[in-house]
Amino acid sequence: MLSENQLLNHIYQTAEMGQEGIQSVLKYTEEPKLVSALNSQLTEYEKLQSAAGSMLQARGEPPKGLGPVAKASSEMMSTMKAMTDRSASNIAEMMIQGSTMGVTKSLRTLRDCDVKDDGVRRLADKLLKTEQANIEEMKRFL
After folding, report:
1. Does residue 98 contact residue 38 with C-beta atoms inside 8 Å?
2. Which helix (H) or strand (E) holds 23?
């Protein structure tokens, strides 16, 4: 069984990965509506990461960010995919894939965690809703 702190770290890292993914593709798209949607999603991930970090610190645990290998791998994959096809459709598909992985990992993590703190539960639910909303928003660009 995972602890609530492990769930909070998952939220922190998932939000960080979302930010990394968006930042790595933003430079490849010139579609104004897509840029606006991605910037909006970036802001949501920043809020989620900040909230998870604050909750962890309040519990006496510093948040654990993504490792340099995970960041570099994500950046490299995004760059390779975006450089070969800069279309809004391709960028949206990449974002949908990333958010889908976020939903899958979050559901698994939630299943393995006995959450008693309502604040932690609400934040985990907010992450899931954000990921699902991001998927729906990106579908418009396919």
Report:
1. no
2. helix 4-26
Res. 22: pLDDT tops 80: yes
How many angstroms separate the CA atoms of 50 and 43, rounded? Answer: 11
Helix, strand counts (H, E) of the chain: 5, 0
Note the pLDDT of residue 38.
98
- Give the pTM: 0.94
Q: Does domain 4-139 have CATH number 3.10.150.10?
A: no
Q: How far apart are CA 61 and CA 40, in angstroms?
A: 29
Which residue(s) pair with 2 in the sheet?
Answer: 113
Scan for tokens 């889908």, then name that residue: 100
Does residue 32 surpass a pLDDT of 80? yes
Looking at residue 41, its amino acid is Q
**Terminal Cα distance for the chain, rounded:** 39
Number of Cβ within 10 Å of residue 58's Cβ equals 10
Average pLDDT of the chain, as a whole number: 94
DSSP string, 49-75: HHHHHHHHHHTT-------HHHHHHHH
* Inter-residue contact 10 to 16 (CB < 8 Å): no
